[in-house]
């Protein structure tokens, strides 16, 4: 490879570099930059406008000349624009980025690690044959060597392990131990016949060879059969599949495993995701043989193509039926490494990168997923403190997914609530964290929600609680939860990518004490402790809870601001301490009470006309006794003429469940839908209101109909009555 000459012409315009270049048989210029004191060019192979001809030989090609604008900083994620072969005495200007496609058929590519000299990687020609197995092994090897995925995600997982595993070498079911590595399978079961682990066949399925394909008399779906073969091919002996590794008719052992599904997937070596089909008969791979070699066009891993790979992966995932199922969310979130099998495509996702199956991985630069374009719910960021923002996104993603049976609503989310109960004090009640119970009751529909009905074992048709989001299926609006997220001041590294809470001055305060009713009809207090230490805001002298420390920072004038930090999460700055939970993951309190109760005030208001709101639901004006505007209520309807209560023009029963305040000087339209209403009072510095719930009585039990807000002045002037409410 000839060395580049240093062009002295127009020395002020051309920057001399130490680099080598060559042109292959198809006219592609190959560059290798050895040394540059201040700036560097990313090496690689770039397409040239020159093509060999009888009149122009390769030896007659003058070396490219670069202007200073073509140089890139060392930390730039993009390579320089591809140079054209210039005529003698002319210079090359950078091409637009849309023309910067890498060469598809090159014999040599260069890797530059910013610390050592360039290294060449021999791809053995454009027609090299590789199998899917070669690619998968290269992914596993690269992640083991250069990534730190084992330390990411769920941390408290060592106390729980699967009870049974499939031995893919002896083709039988074996008892699991913590010393054994295993692979997990995530798939869509569908309405297919499948062998299940039961009490009566447990002993039989432990015989070696009983699951062998040649002499197996049981019905094992194609997806599970291929997962067993693929696990054996990548060198792993044990596989976990829900149908064959949990005794289906033993609730004493099945329910604890469902609650700890997060630990099962987090402890696995890798997860196979059957994302290409809609049933277990579809299979992982179209041919079933990942050892077959095929000619693949080599694709050199480059920074500017990383986003293209992520787009491909994201589009395939969005279109898959697997990504629309409720059970697969927690399996995806807690798996440290996932291999996705689509129809004809295979992709890889871990805590550091995304790959696709164009070519075996040769070299990578590990990048956290939160720094790149990435679907928001595909990476769990463990935090030792209650992270309401993380939980808010998981709830939104889960509630729009499909479930075969409504009775699976709670179990399919149990792994998430059990894992987060280690940080949320008091656990969860039907998906609502007890620590933030007053605030999380204020969830609202973003579009029309469908009521979830469950057929219980008793045979009586029943429903999930109306006060919980789990009782409704569809897209949720949880922006109001930002009103209690004021304990976090600044947070580095979000597990959900570019998502941020809406900026708001909203503050919510509890005004009632909630209880849940247990099986013995006893009222047990719900420990809503989110504001326990809120009085410590900018408090320079009070004693702090264990593990917390403060830093004083001077602000304008003589005022001081106190920032709080916890030893377990030094990257997060807090406005005030929050209570911590120290519950082991296998003993997490996940409660499912059907009824909650409180003592609160009720008042009756009339409803007015429809008001504009940035969502697909019906927003109605609340009017006081004089007919003046008093607030807004969001209904789970789209049209006003189909709401029976609006036709009768009766007064609606509202109960106060919390109070709030927001600054009038800024826009809160993203959180408060009535903010731009022409009749909303704008005088004064603060907008004060009560959060209210419209209820409907059925016997002695009330049920949630809608949630909204009433002006504080209108509520104080209304006729009120203190009552005891039992919500079902």
What does this structure look like?
It is a single chain. By secondary structure, the chain is an alpha+beta fold. It contains twelve helices and 38 strands. The strands form ten sheets. It has an eight-stranded mixed β-sheet with strand order 8-7-10-9-11-13-14-15, with helices on both faces. Strands 32-33-34-37-36-35 form a six-stranded antiparallel β-barrel. The chain has a four-stranded antiparallel β-sheet with strand order 24-30-29-28, with no helix packed on it. Helix 7 (327-334) packs parallel to helix 9. This is HET-domain-containing protein.
Describe this structure in a few short sentences.
With 728 residues, this protein is of the alpha+beta class.
Number of strands: 38
Strand order of the largest sheet: 8-7-10-9-11-13-14-15
Percentage of residues in DSSP E strands: 25-35%
Shape: globular
Fraction of residues in helix? 10-25%
Reported for the largest beta sheet, the result is:
8 strands, mixed
Which blocks of ≥5 consecutive residues have pLDDT under 50? 1-18, 33-52, 56-61, 63-127, 298-305, 363-377, 456-461, 494-498
Q: Give the averaged pLDDT, no decimals.
A: 76
Give the C-alpha Rg: 31 Å
Global structural class = alpha+beta
């Amino acid at each position: 490879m000839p060395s580049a000459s240093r062009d002295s012409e127009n020395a002020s315009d051309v920057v001399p570099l130490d680099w080598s270049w060559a042109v292959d048989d198809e006219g592609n210029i190959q560059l290798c930059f050895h040394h540059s004191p201040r700036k560097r060019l990313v090496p690689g192979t770039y397409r040239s406008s020159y093509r060999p001809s009888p009149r122009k030989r390769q030896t007659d090609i003058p070396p490219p000349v670069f202007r200073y604008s073509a140089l890139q900083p060392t930390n730039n994620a993009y390579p320089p624009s591809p140079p054209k072969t210039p005529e003698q005495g002319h210079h090359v200007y950078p091409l637009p980025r849309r023309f910067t496609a890498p060469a598809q058929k090159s014999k040599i590519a260069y890797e530059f690690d910013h610390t050592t000299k360039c290294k060449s990687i021999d791809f053995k020609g454009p027609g090299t044959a590789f199998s899917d197995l070669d690619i998968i092994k290269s992914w596993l090897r690269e992640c083991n060597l250069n990534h730190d995925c084992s330390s990411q995600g769920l941390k408290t997982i060592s106390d729980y392990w699967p009870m049974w595993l499939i031995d893919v070498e002896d083709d039988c079911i074996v008892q699991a131990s913590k010393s054994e590595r295993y692979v997990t399978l995530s798939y869509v079961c569908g309405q297919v016949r499948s062998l299940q682990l039961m009490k009566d066949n447990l002993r039989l399925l432990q015989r070696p060879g009983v699951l062998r394909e040649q002499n197996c008399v049981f019905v094992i779906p194609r997806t599970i059969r291929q997962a067993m073969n693929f696990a054996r091919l990548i060198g792993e002996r044990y596989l976990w599949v829900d149908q064959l590794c949990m005794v289906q008719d033993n609730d004493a052992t099945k329910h604890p495993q469902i609650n700890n599904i997060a630990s099962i997937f987090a402890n696995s070596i890798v997860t196979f995701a059957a994302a290409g089909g809609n049933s277990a008969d579809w299979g992982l791979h179209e041919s079933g043989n990942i050892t077959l070699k095929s000619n693949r066009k080599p694709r050199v891993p480059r920074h500017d193509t990383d986003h293209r790979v992520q787009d491909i992966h994201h589009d395939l995932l969005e279109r898959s039926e697997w990504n629309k199922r409720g059970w697969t969310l927690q399996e995806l979130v807690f798996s440290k490494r996932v291999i996705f099998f689509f129809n004809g495509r295979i992709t890889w996702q871990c805590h550091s990168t995304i790959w696709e199956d164009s070519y075996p991985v040769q070299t990578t630069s590990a990048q956290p997923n939160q720094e790149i374009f990435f679907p928001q719910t595909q990476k769990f960021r463990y935090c030792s403190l209650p992270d309401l923002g993380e939980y808010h996104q998981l709830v939104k993603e889960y509630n729009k997914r499909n479930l075969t049976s409504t009775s699976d609503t709670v179990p399919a989310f149990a792994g998430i609530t059990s894992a987060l109960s280690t940080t949320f004090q008091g656990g969860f009640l039907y998906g609502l964290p007890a620590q933030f119970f007053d605030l999380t009751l204020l969830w609202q529909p973003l579009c029309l929600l469908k009521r979830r009905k469950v057929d219980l074992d008793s045979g009586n048709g029943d429903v999930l609680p109306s006060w919980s989001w789990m009782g409704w299926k569809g897209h949720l609006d949880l922006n109001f939860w930002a009103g209690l997220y004021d304990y976090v001041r600044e947070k580095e590294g979000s597990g959900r990518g570019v998502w941020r809470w809406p900026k708001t001055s909203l503050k919510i305060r509890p005004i009632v004490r909630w209880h849940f009713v247990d099986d013995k009809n006893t009222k047990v207090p719900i420990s809503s402790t989110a504001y326990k230490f809120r009085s410590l805001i900018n408090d320079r002298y009070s004693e702090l809870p264990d593990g917390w420390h403060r830093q004083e920072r001077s602000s304008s004038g003589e005022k001081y601001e106190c920032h709080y930090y916890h030893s377990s999460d030094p990257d997060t700055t807090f406005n005030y301490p929050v209570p911590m939970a120290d519950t082991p993951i296998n003993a997490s309190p996940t409660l499912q009470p059907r009824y909650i109760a409180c003592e609160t005030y009720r008042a009756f208001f009339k409803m007015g006309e429809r008001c504009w709101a940035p969502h697909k639901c019906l927003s109605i004006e609340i009017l006081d006794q004089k007919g003046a505007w008093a607030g807004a209520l969001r209904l789970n309807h789209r049209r006003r003429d189909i709401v029976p209560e609006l036709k009768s023009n009766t007064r609606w029963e509202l109960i106060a469940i919390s109070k709030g305040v927001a600054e009038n000087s800024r826009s809160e339209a993203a959180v408060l839908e009535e903010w731009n209403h022409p009749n909303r009072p704008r005088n004064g510095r603060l907008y004060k209101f009560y959060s209210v719930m419209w209820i409907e009585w059925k016997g002695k039990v009330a049920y949630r109909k809608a949630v909204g807000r009433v002006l504080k002045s209108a509520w104080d002037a209304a006729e009120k009555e203190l009552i005891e409410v039992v919500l079902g």
